[in-house]
Specification:
Blueprint: H1 11-25, H2 27-34, H3 56-74, E1 82-85, H4 90-100, H5 105-111, H6 113-123, H7 128-137, E2 143-149, H8 153-168, E3 172-182, E4 187-188, H9 191-194, E5 198-211, E6 220-225, E7 236-239, E8 244-250, E9 256-261, H10 275-284, E10 288-295, H11 310-313, E11 325-328, E12 340-343, H12 349-357, H13 363-369, H14 401-410, E13 414-425, E14 434-444, H15 450-457, E15 461-463, H16 465-477, E16 482-483, E17 485-486, E18 496-498, E19 505-507, H17 511-518, H18 530-533, E20 538-539, E21 547-550, E22 554-555, H19 557-562, H20 564-567, H21 577-582, E23 591-594, H22 601-613, E24 620-624, E25 627-628, H23 645-652, H24 654-662, E26 672-673, H25 676-705, H26 733-754, H27 758-779, H28 781-785, H29 792-813, H30 818-828, H31 839-842, H32 862-885, E27 893-899, H33 903-910, H34 913-920, E28 922-928, E29 935-941, H35 943-950, H36 954-962, H37 966-975, E30 977-981, E31 984-988, E32 992-998, H38 1000-1003, E33 1009-1014, E34 1017-1022, H39 1027-1048, E35 1057-1063, H40 1066-1074, H41 1076-1082, E36 1089-1090, H42 1091-1098, E37 1107-1116, E38 1119-1127, ...
Parallel strand pairs: 1-2, 6-9, 7-11, 15-24, 23-24, 25-26, 27-28, 35-36
Antiparallel strand pairs: 3-4, 3-14, 5-6, 5-13, 7-12, 8-9, 8-10, 14-16, 17-22, 18-19, 18-21, 20-21, 27-34, 29-32, 30-31, 33-34, 35-38, 37-38, 39-42, 40-41
Helix pairs in contact: 1-30, 4-6, 5-6, 15-16, 23-24, 24-25, 25-27, 25-29, 26-27, 26-29, 26-32, 27-29, 29-30, 32-33, 39-40, 39-41
Length: 1214
């Protein structure tokens, strides 16, 4: 066997070795070959952009995907895993725009569309090699070589097919809408894109006046806006028809007469604020007098003077009909502003709706024009002013605010100027503020299929469920028609050819159809990007002799990612519908992404799937939350407020990072504040204990299996992987417990993974590792080590049990910690019995080829598991009490009492008394069900349950419940319910929390007795100490110092040593005088020896001693202690006159043996056997020989070649 088990291990180094192993095995491809005939498990991987490097969000989502797909593979499925790349759209174009100094459409045309798109293509896969390296280093198995790319011809053709199908169903239309618009990218965005990146910003807030034409008092309508740049485009003012408006005399502004909503009067004056209080305060100061009150409907039709005359004198004014008047709509609120809203139809969704409804602008005219020319829109595609605002032409709209406000103030129309802080949408790619702008676009009529979206979504399992039901479900229920067109260049072109007047529209669904309609030879079209298809014309069938041209727009890249189920398989061209739907390619069994994708990829997948196939595109979806920096802020490269992911991996290993992420709240959709210390804790608390359990097994299993003792007899070997003896009910309680716990774990993992609840599975796996290391291994050390009182057969059973558990744990943990599972498995598989009928299925080239183990239902004993849990709780309470009172765990105590109100639970713990005594380190253990003797009870009402049920009566009931006596609480616990009289109602035990408190008054009656309680278990501990107990504690402390010193110098359990102990106080002296034999037995050897004896032996002439270490150790209870460890067995006797009688070869061999013993702490089997024989022989006689390099060296006692400690001590008079 080649077994790896050093004392310390570098997990990153072992992971790099594992990567090389997987490379040698071609492990991922080999796993796919092995699974060729299995049922299919379909997984869709959402495509990232390769224009940036992966961050923690990518690593988290990738880890979740890898974990689930690995588990599916090990559950008997074929799991194709193909990586995908999002290649089109703004993220790519934005990079090129920065590199080529592109600021407008004219810049692109100057460069040339072909050259621009070629530049985009050149950077699409810029970081693909880095992505692949990072993904592989994290341990994710996925196919990069056969991955899909949204820019590939086959993918783009499937996108065309999907769109043509939507058009065929009447779900595509051309509309003119006010949409979120990115001036940095010169394109509209969809509504869900606008929701991806909100920020808190400060904008100028201006309150301005609009004089009413012909008003006798010169009254002015007052409006409020945070977008001063829209005021040049104002064409109407809007009031709420039912709100009350006032005409007031403003004494702070020279008696000007202003019209505002009554609820907003306070906003006009010093101190601001809304509501009656602010208005009353201003009125009390004499700031204003109300002249009259009127409903909003009375203001409708009033004409006013526009703020600017751009659309009064410009030719665009001819397209306006009856503008600059007051209209009414219920979208106006009294929550902010003045209750009067200025309308600019080109820059607001409600503005456009109301102005088209009122006939101020003509909707049909705007749609037909395919431009904003039919609207008062003096802003170009880049967000700069244009005609008729010629005096600000070329100025970016937000930069023009200051100048516009200056002009408004100069005209005497500025009532108030403030700064307004609010949450505002930013472009998710350029990180610049969005505006809302009327643009002609192509839409998918999502609102028509909204009910089917909601119904189909209900068939999918969402984890967490609340995301699918609320966040995503509510989004679907209110879904708007989807703008799928973008005025950009690098993307899949819309397959729409239309006549010049737009009356004839043809939507192409394939390359073959395009070639046929355009009269091109088959095979002509080899690329569908704009530079290749924009110039293709097709003759009109409605008006022969005229031609249709392709519209300029390209697809929203989210449409492409939503089409990945079809594009990645080149459906329906490479795969037909029966194969696509019938073979399991669609829908996916599983997908996973971050919470932000509820309004991104999840949404577009759902819309296209329901529209095309009337079903959800996935059966199961895991939605992870956001990973933030440790300070709770968004991770920022600029702020450097998070550690580099790969630096963390190289410090602690990928498994530590994976486990940290997938056991955190982020897997159930909550937020995670990333802490590097949390990754480090995974190494300390999980990986190292797991490794140490494995190492302990190896340290004891290897000597057990070494000849000449080990044989192939059933009672003399390990049975790992066999059906016996561990399949029968184990005789040892801890064997029974760990086997039950393991079978329960397997059952739990299978059930929970089928429900995709990683957030329950990973903590349970980590808890099992804790139970294995601090429970089973800790309590079974003597059996596993083969202590003198343990039979070889019992040691075999214990080692077999531990080996089975460790092997199974490697398999169970493989999807979660693939590296550690692999390299531990590579060693553990060597212990699998060749007699096992499962040998071929258990011993594979990789743990990731091994199927998940079945749960042995017969081995599960829930009651016994609970009994051990109670025992462990009692042990934990005992340790807590010791720490509280400063009593070391090594100090034995007289007695402990375990209390539980369930008699059966008490009896089950009593059966484990051997372990209770050892772990609590007490002489006697008592048991009781008399909780009342030690505890008092309190009841706390469950507000979440009782609050909704009782309503206003809850506070009174809560006070009553909190005031119950201990006896009343016990009565409720015993009966399960209680009847209250005031108010009359029946209260259930499940509606209150019952808390148990230690009755301190009772404990004070008993000196040196302490107690604690948790999880239904109460432990009463006698803390009194007498001389006998104190001396026992000293023995334990000295033994502990010896063990620590052995570990420090690298001794293993089989290394025999003699122990010399010295000290400067009574403690060491009493241990040597009264307990030397006991301490030696605890160390597995002979009695402890006084340090002075070592000094005496050293003074003997001609003695060569193998002193391994001689140094002071940590003090015990304030007394200094010194230890010396000397190799046990035979020592060279250089004083022997018979040494000269040896032949030269024998003398050389003898000298070599002496030197070897000086260098090594390990005795060879031959030397150990010869030493045992020599010890049994008479003095001054040949006791045997040792063969060194083929030369036999005699072992002779007494005045001869070799001697032992006893002889030397006698010679020294000790």
């Amino acid at each position: 066997m080649r077994i790896f088990a050093p004392e310390s291990v570098s997990f990153p180094d072992k992971e790099r070795e594992t990567l090389k192993l997987w490379e040698r095995l071609d492990a991922f491809e080999e796993s796919n070959r092995r699974a060729a005939d299995r049922p299919l498990f379909t997984f869709y991987d959402g495509p990232p952009f390769a224009t940036g490097l992966p961050h923690y969000g990518h690593i988290l989502a990738g880890t979740i995907k890898d974990t689930v797909t690995r588990f599916a593979y090990q559950s008997g499925y074929r799991v194709p895993r193909r990586f995908g790349w999002d290649c089109h759209g703004l993220p790519v174009e934005y990079e090129i725009d920065q590199a080529m100094n592109v600021r407008s459409r004219d810049d692109v045309l100057r460069i040339g569309l072909a050259k621009y798109n070629d530049a985009c293509r050149s950077i699409v896969m810029r970081y693909s090699a880095e992505w692949e390296a990072i993904v592989r280093r994290i341990g994710r198995w996925i196919d990069f070589e056969r991955g899909y790319r949204t820019m590939d011809l086959s993918f783009m053709e499937s996108v065309w097919w999907a769109f043509s199908e939507l058009h065929r169903q009447g779900l595509v239309y051309r509309g003119f809408r006010v949409m979120p618009y990115s001036t940095a990218c010169s394109t509209p965005l969809s509504n869900f894109e606008a929701n991806l990146n909100y920020k808190d910003v400060q904008d100028p807030a201006v309150t301005v006046s609009f004089p009413i034409v012909g008003d006798a008092d010169g009254a002015e309508l007052v409006a409020w806006t945070t977008t001063p740049w829209t005021l040049p485009s104002n064409v109407a003012l809007c009031v709420h028809p039912e709100l009350e408006y006032v005409r007031l005399c403003d004494n702070t502004r020279d008696g000007r007469v202003l019209v505002v909503a009554a609820a907003r009067i306070g906003e006009l004056f010093k101190g601001g604020g809304d509501g009656p209080a602010a208005a009353a305060k201003a009125q009390a100061r004499g700031d204003y007098q109300v002249l009259s009150r009127t409903p909003g409907t009375a203001l409708v039709g009033c004409r006013y003077q526009p703020m600017f005359d751009y659309f009064v004198r410009h030719s665009g004014a001819a397209r306006l009909h009856d503008a600059f008047r007051v209209v009414a709509d219920t979208f106006v609120t009294a929550d902010s502003g003045t209750g009067i809203v200025h309308l600019a139809p080109a820059f607001g969704e409600d503005d456009f709706r109301i102005c088209t409804r009122e006939g101020i602008v003509q909707r049909d005219e705007a749609v037909a024009s395919a431009t904003t020319a039919a609207l008062p829109c003096p802003v170009d595609d880049d967000g700069r002013f244009t005609e008729p605002v010629t005096d600000l032409a070329g100025v970016y709209i937000k930069d023009a605010d200051r100048e516009l406000i200056r002009r408004i103030k100069a005209a005497g129309r500025l009532i108030k100027h403030d700064t307004y802080q609010h949450s505002y949408p930013f472009c998710w790619r350029s990180d610049t503020p969005l505006i809302y702008r009327a643009v002609p676009s192509w839409f998918v009529a999502v609102e028509r299929i909204r009910d089917r979206l909601v119904a189909c979504n209900a068939t999918a399992r969402w984890v967490p469920a609340s995301t699918g039901e609320h966040r995503f479900g509510n989004w679907l229920a209110n879904a708007r028609d989807w703008n799928v067109s973008r005025n950009r260049y690098w993307g899949t072109p819309l397959p729409i050819w239309q006549s010049e007047d737009g009356s004839e529209v043809v939507v192409i669904g394939s390359i073959a159809e395009l070639e046929q309609r355009a009269g091109l030879p088959p095979g002509t079209v080899r690329d569908l990007h704009r530079q290749y298809v924009d110039d293709i014309r097709m003759e009109s069938r409605m008006r022969p002799g005229t031609y249709l041209r392709r519209v300029e727009e390209v697809f929203d890249c989210w449409f492409e990612s939503g089409a990945m189920p079809y594009g990645s398989h080149h459906y329906p061209f490479a795969v037909d519908e029966p194969a696509f739907l019938g073979s399991g390619l669609f829908p996916a069994n599983f997908i996973a992404e971050g919470q932000d994708q509820t309004r991104g990829w999840f949404y577009t997948l759902m819309v296209l799937s329901v529209a095309l196939f009337d079903r959800a595109p996935f059966q199961n979806v895991i939605v992870n939350g956001l990973v933030l920096a440790e300070d709770g802020k968004k991770m920022s490269k600029r702020l450097k407020n998070y550690p580099d992911p790969m630096a963390v991996v190289e410090r602690y290993g990928a498994d530590a990072l994976r486990l940290y992420l997938i056991q955190s709240p982020v897997v159930r959709g909550e937020t995670l504040r990333f802490r590097e210390a949390g990754v480090r804790d995974m190494v300390r608390d999980v990986l190292l204990p797991w490794y140490n359990a494995y190492r302990f097994f190896v340290q004891n299993a290897l000597p057990f299996l070494q000849p000449p003792v080990a044989t192939d007899d059933a009672a003399d070997r390990l049975h790992i992987g066999e059906d016996c003896p561990t399949s029968a009910t184990p005789a040892n309680a801890m064997d029974k417990w760990i086997q039950s716990l393991l079978s329960s774990l397997i059952e739990f993992v299978r059930d929970e993974m089928q429900a995709y609840r990683l957030y329950t599975v990973v903590p349970r796996l980590l808890w099992f590792i804790e139970s294995l290391t601090n429970g089973y291994v800790r309590m079974n050390r003597p059996r596993l080590r083969g202590a003198p009182e343990v039979s070889r057969a019992d040691q075999a059973v214990a080692l077999t049990t531990l080996g089975e558990v460790l092997l199974t744990l490697c398999i169970l943990m493989a999807p979660f910690a693939p590296f550690t599972s692999e390299w531990l498995y590579q060693n553990m598989r060597q212990f699998v019995s060749r007699h096992s009928p499962r040998y071929d299925s258990l011993v594979c080239a990789s743990v990731h080829f091994v199927m998940m183990p079945p749960s042995r239902i017969a081995a599960i004993d829930r009651d016994f598991e609970q009994a051990v849990a109670h025992m462990q709780q009692a042990i934990l309470l005992g340790r807590t009490l010791r720490e509280r009172h400063g009593i070391a765990l090594k100090q034995p105590l007289r007695r402990a009492r375990i209390v539980h109100r369930d008699e059966q639970a008490v009896q089950r713990v009593r059966a484990l008394e051997h372990y209770v005594r050892l772990e609590l380190n007490v002489h006697d253990v008592e048991y009781s069900t008399d909780e009342v003797r030690y505890l008092s009870y309190r009841a706390v009402p469950d507000g979440k349950v009782l609050g909704p049920r009782l309503g206003a009566a809850f506070p009174a009931v809560a006070r009553q419940v909190r005031g119950w006596s201990s006896a009343q609480v016990m009565a409720l616990q015993r009966r399960g319910s209680v009847q209250l009289s005031d108010p009359p109602l029946q209260l259930q035990a499940s509606e209150v929390f019952i808390q148990r408190d230690i009755d301190r008054g009772h404990l004070q009656m008993h000196e040196d007795v302490e107690a604690d309680s948790a999880s239904g278990v109460t432990l009463v501990l006698d803390l009194s100490l007498d001389e006998t107990l104190v001396l026992e504690g000293w023995v334990r402390e000295v033994v502990n110092r010896v063990q620590r010193l052995r570990k420090k110098i690298g001794l293993v359990p089989s290394d025999a040593v003699e122990v010399f102990v010295g000290g400067n106080g009574e403690g060491v002296a009493r241990v040597l005088q009264e307990r030397a034999e006991e301490a030696g037995a605890l160390l597995g050897g002979r009695r402890l020896l006084p340090y002075r004896a070592l000094d005496a032996v050293r003074r003997l002439p001609g003695v060569t001693m193998a002193v391994l270490v001689d140094e002071p150790v940590d003090a015990v209870q304030g007394e200094a202690v010194r230890l010396a460890l000397v190799r046990a067995g035979l020592w060279p006797n250089t004083r022997s006159p018979r040494l000269a009688a040896l032949s030269p070869p024998q003398r050389e061999a003898w000298a070599a043996a002496v030197q070897a013993r000086e260098r090594s702490c390990l005795l060879s089997a031959a030397v150990a056997a010869a030493a045992a024989a020599a010890a049994a022989a008479a003095e001054n006689s040949v006791a045997g020989v040792v063969e060194v390099d083929g030369v036999e060296v005699p072992l002779i006692l007494g005045d001869t070649v070799m001697t032992n400690l006893a002889d030397l001590l006698a010679a020294a008079g000790e």
